[in-house]
């Protein structure tokens, strides 16, 4: 709507002039114009002609003030409020002016005009609304968002400052029981966070926990922001001792994430915080070891006042050294420390070395890097004189045998890939350089000389089969490491091995038929080579039968998948 009042002057009843969504002419005009093209004259004439039109909401219960706030029509917002302010006492709710009731009106989402103005960063509209009604705290909408939370989440420093300066007691809640301070900390906006904690009402958010039990300090530590961490602790040092739903403190988070600067600072100013354990009984050293940061572990080990943590057990009886294999940590200062009990046992009567052996046994055979790291940790534990394992020697031997099987499997796969590649290479070369050569002259130039021979045809078919299956096996071997499913990986490997064996047999047949067709004129030699070639199948069969018959394990390159 362009704002031509003459087009509407003949309408007898403007309040009945509605769209299917119950938008009035004012809704349409404010929606379809910008701050530069909106017509104050048009709005003034409409209000003069039909003043009650301003109070009519649309189907979403949005007033024209919602629309003005959403699109940043600050002058129109002032005009609407001044118009409503002049309403007679009969239109005034008890104790509250009509303009305030108008401003506090909510739509179906329980958004007020201030919600809309903040959401779309219209600072002039925000100023107009706050100047008119600074006493109202503005509750959360259906999404649990208050205007202050929206401004903080959207990092609108100017709007946050305006709300804090103008509103006497602003509501600061947000979704998931978070607050505007949570949002500022998550965005790592230290300037906004400082402004928020200066407000005596909002300052209480320092100890406000969200649904996960995380207070703003937890998020400050998680993001690794030392400045925010200091700011929040300065407001209330007790927050250093506050635990989330899992029992974690900010110190636990810093230790696990390897943020040694924050961890060192918390320990320095709140040393007794290190004694707190989570709901599993894990202390700060447990977290540092599980996180795998050697620096954080070193800081704890160098602080003898924390020596009570070195061999403290969690609720499963595991000391920090039991948790060594949960990470890639190789920290000699920890393992060799004289106050660390290397032979401590958990509730399963296992030492740290036992736990490491169990991890080897239970690990995915394809995860070679993890197994290698665990083996290095086992050697470290043994060298630290913790090799007096409480487990039976047979179990330790089983773990070593399983590790050996993993290595053999890896070597077998590499060998199979090499064999398949060689077969594909030889078959390709044989297919290009055909037996007997090609015709050099005439209309059939380039065609194989022996193309009419049945043995030549057998050669070409068997050579093609060998080439295709070998190339397919190579592709499977190259693809197999991508999958994380152990069963699928084994199935792929078995399939590739079968293809390789068939390709090998086809290659032998191609050699026999190719040689025979060349030496067909020398029948005795051709037959002898034919029989010698076929004997390779019998020889392979008897070799496998011999190994299997005597109960001996097959060599890894030919029988690792035949179990």
UniProtKB/TrEMBL annotation:
It is found in: Cell membrane; Membrane. Residues 410-517 form the PGG domain. The keyword Membrane applies. Residues 384-405 are annotated as: Disordered. Its main location: membrane. The chain crosses the membrane at residues 417-438, 458-479, 491-518, 524-544. The keyword Transmembrane applies. It is a peripheral membrane protein; Multi-pass membrane protein. GO terms for cellular component: plasma membrane. ANK repeats lie at residues 60-83, 109-141, 212-244. It comes from the Eukaryota. Residues 390-405 have a biased composition (Basic and acidic residues). Keywords: ANK repeat, Membrane, Repeat, Transmembrane, Transmembrane helix. It holds the Pfam family PGG. InterPro entries: Ankyrin_rpt, Ankyrin_rpt-contain_sf, PGG_dom. SUPFAM superfamilies: Ankyrin repeat. This is Ankyrin repeat-containing protein.
